[in-house]
Amino acid sequence: MSKTAGGTRRTYRSPLQVARTALARGRSVGADLEIYVQYARTVNIKVFSRDVESMTVAEPRGLGVRAVRGGRTGYAFTADLSNAGVDRALGAAADNLRAADVDPFVCLPEASPCAYPDLQGLWLPGVADTGLAAKTDMALTAEAAALSIPEVGLVEESVYSDEEAHTAIASTMGIEAEAEESLCFLYVTAHAARGSDRQSGLGFCAGRGPAALDPEQAGREAAEKARALLGARPCATGSYTVVFDREVAAALLASIAQALSADAVQKGRSVFAGRLGQRVASPLLTVFDDGLADGGMATNPFDGEGVPRQTTALFEAGVLRSFLHSSYTARKEGGDTRSTGNAVRGSYRSVPGVGATNLVVRRDGGEPADVIARVGRGLYVDSVAGLHSGINPISGEISVGATGRLIERGGLGMPVREVTIATDFARFLGSVCDLGADARWIPLHGSVYTPSMVVDGITVSGA
Amino acid sequence: MEYLGPAPEMAGDILARALKGGGEAADLFVEERRSLSLRLEDGRVDNVVSGSDLGASVRVTRGLSTVFGYVDAVDEPALRRLAKELSRTRPRGPVVALSLEERTLGPRQTVVMDPVLVDAAGKADLLHLADETARALSPEIRQVAAGYGESRQRVWIAGSDGWMTVDDRTRVSLAITVMAERDGLIQTGRDGLAHCGGFEIFEETAVKRLATVVGEKALIMLDSRPAPAGRMTVVLANGFGGVLFHEACGHGLEADYILKKSSVWEGRLGRRVAADFVFAYDDGAGAGMWGSAGCDDEGTPSRRTMVIEAGVLTGYLTDTLRARHLDLRPTGNGRRQDYRYLPYPRMTNTYFGPGRQTPEEIIADTPRALYAKSLSGGEVNPATGDFVFGVAEGYLIENGRVTTPVRGATLIGSGPEVLKGIDAVADDLEVKPGTCGKEGQAVPVGTGQPTLRIRELTVGGTSLA
For B388, which of A56, A398, A401 is closest by C-beta distance? Predict the structure, then answer.
């Protein structure tokens, strides 16, 4: 542990040095090697009832080895960065590849001829320079803000969380990449009660440093959301025009993006297979995967295997333009297909997969006016539940629980809970009939920048 | 007993140091985990991943407030430094010497065939067998993804109230997903075989049977119609249906929510919550069950807790911290993903107890319903009790017979209402393996039930009848 409280930074071997050393030690393994090293410092402070419920301060670190030989891949990870620990991981990766089958497209990416993009502001000193007491205060402030709202008697949790991560990749193909980033989050779950009725709401904010957080706003947001649902009941079963709040739109888009991974397409796991160049969405939808986006939480100079990140058009005016590629899927695709810098990995513990970075919905012009007023009648959905079980990214079916408000005479009416909304990827994308002017960055696994979306013909199952 | 890392006699010293800052209780969690996974897709084993984790954490609590830290190491100096660091977050107090006694647990886990002794090629063969079996069913089967996983987790845990214990957990799993396609319609089937134990469950016939069941599931769903929308009777099949208890009730019984009064089940102990033929359990000691262990991750011996007895709510699920504040006995539910995480009250293996009817009798007695044969998981809001779960394989029941397959349904309801709506329970209890996520931590759980019927539930399909 370092002296985190005062923000004193301990000197250590940089991740790139660790990766280079591992690469040198791995010469005898007799395979192409990629070493991924991550060091992090994390703080998590949860407050409840105006006191610290838990405080965790940690410095996780670890290394992953990908070994490739003769079309076979093996992988091993360890948190033991001693020479002995690294040697064991190198040996295990080489052993593991023997159990894999040959795939002619398996490869490690070549070093890019271009320099990595010079992205500013991914690491800000605020996370390290802010003491634990000040971080605790932010969580307490958010809790107090929520409790100041009438009918809010309980804040289940108010959590401040941050991370500084220092990542490096080095490979026998000549890749050497290193980046530092900082992230911090604050989220609050508030409960509002009226009689025996109780409802909860979530508020959050995120940024690269504590200065970007607005704890009062997050607390009020949680409280207002909970309060708006008081008295909620199921609405009538039927077909509705639904206004998806940007947080919900973001979650649905992130699920749909799983089917835009070339790996899913090549392995028959995607409803978008064979649809390149075709209209698959409403002409209102233009969506990019932007690994370099200013303000995106997933922004990084390079992807999970050291390929430069880039901006890739997915839908342009509803036409499917591209899938997301790693070096493996690009090689398998053949022709002049190149990796789009979309190799993603959760941590040093996992093999790179293929996925979205920052999804950006572009809205050109249009009416800034309130979409709810324009819709007139329908359902406004502000949260969904059961995304994991209710969205099948392979078949494209969507059926999830929802809460929100009825839209009546152009305004928000009766609060609604215990209903489901059901559609599928194609119908959802094809039926987007309006976009709001309220785009915001939503941190999910990557992040999504989207306005609220209006979609026609959604089946709502309720009373 | 075999200990990892620091000598056991040092543990008391480390805990005493951690408590120096005025903490009331402290514990030490030392863990070694070795894991291996193989994945097959497109007929090829494309990923073979092994990992080793070795680390320890120290937790210090005072009142309801906890400070926690961990190190990716288990040597004594590293743990002493960690303990000292944590004690500094609070004002200093005296060091009080501690001595620890060994706490012995029940019977040790049985591992007939240690997976480490099976070579990787044998594990790859298992995946190929699953792939070939499923593909042989029909040309409409377009893709098979299969994953094998094994882990051996050894832990030793010491608490400042004067005890220590060790546990050794071996788990193996095989999961298969099959995709079938006809005229652009893609459907999937998914199931697995997993237990707390060794490689012995992967007999050739068992793997073939599993692959066949999963493949047939995907093929049947190609004939499905969109699920109906609206309120109707639901019959939940045994096994997978256990997600119902987990979401509709189990999470709300976890003592962290109870203590914060943020659960809809708070204050309902001793009250009637279901019909008198409904019994429910959390069973961390169930032999071989996926969520079982010798003790929980705070060292409390695993046990079976009856949470609903003859329709009356009889228990909450708690760790030691919440037990102290709620004046409950710890139930062996203090669990964590690994040493990097704080323990929370978590379910182990939960299930409804068996009733007297057969599933056939229940179906025959049902004029019209949705029959949810397998579920794909769910989610609950413990504050309101509102839950959802996805139906992976569903059918209609018409005039007492299972008829048309239906796809794309989510069920939604309120926990307390749905429990009251259970009007029939069969005798075919089965517990299935699953993964539960809470506080950003994934832990293995078992979810089970016999076939049961719920009078009315909202079915979220797309078809407006």
Answer: A401
CA distance B302 to A41: 34
CB contacts, 8 Å: A52 with chain B:
65
Phi/psi of residue A458, nearest 5 degrees = -90, 130
Q: Please tell me the CATH superfamily of domain B115-154+166-221, with its number.
A: Lipoprotein like domain (3.30.160.150)
| Contact criterion met (CB < 8 Å) for B231 and A54 | no
Residue-range domain boundaries for chain B = 115-154+166-221, 229-460
B229 → chain A, closest CA residue: A461
Judge if ipTM > 0.90. Answer: yes
pLDDT digits (tens, 9 = 90+) for B296-350: 999 999 999 999 999 999 999 999 999 999 999 999 999 999 999 999 999 999 9
Q: Chain B 113-142, CB below 8 Å of chain A: which residues? A: 119-121, 123-124, 142
Encoded tokens for B293:
């262990």
Whole-number Å distance between alpha carbons of B156 and B166? 4
Q: Which residue has the tokens 């599993």?
A: B210
Please provide the CATH number assigned to the domain covering A15-225: 3.30.2290.10
User: Nearest Cα to B4, choosing from B171, B210, B157, B148?
Assistant: B157
- Hey, are the CB atoms on B458 and A462 less than 8 Å from each other? yes
Listed in order, strand segments (DSSP E) in A49-113 are: 51-58, 61-69, 72-78
Domain ranges in chain A? 15-225, 232-463
* Exposure class string for B35-66: b at 16+ Cβ within 10 A, else e: bbbbbbbeebbbbbbbbbbbbbbbbbbbebbb
Residues of chain A neighbouring B378 (CB-CB closer than 8 A): 386, 389
Contact between A385 and B69 using a beta-carbon 8 Å cutoff: no
Closest residue in chain B to residue A202, using alpha carbons only: B381
- A144-A147-A149 Cα angle (round to 5): 120
**How far apart are alpha carbons B141 and B134 in whole angstroms?**
8
* Nearest Cα residue in chain A from B86: A57
Q: Nearest CB to A54: which of B50, B188, B342?
A: B342
The amino acid that residue B81 corresponds to is: R
Question: With a CB-CB cutoff of 8 Å, which residues 264-283 of chain B face chain A?
Answer: 264
Residue among A61, A78, A399 minimizing CB distance to B52? A78
What pTM was estimated for this model as a whole?
A: 0.92
User: Residue A424, CB half-sphere, CA atoms under 13 Å: how many?
Assistant: 21
pLDDT digits (tens, 9 = 90+) for A177-226: 999 999 999 999 999 999 989 999 999 999 999 999 999 999 999 999 99
> What residue type is A302 in one-letter code?
F
Report the C-alpha gap between B77 and B17 in whole angstroms.
Answer: 12
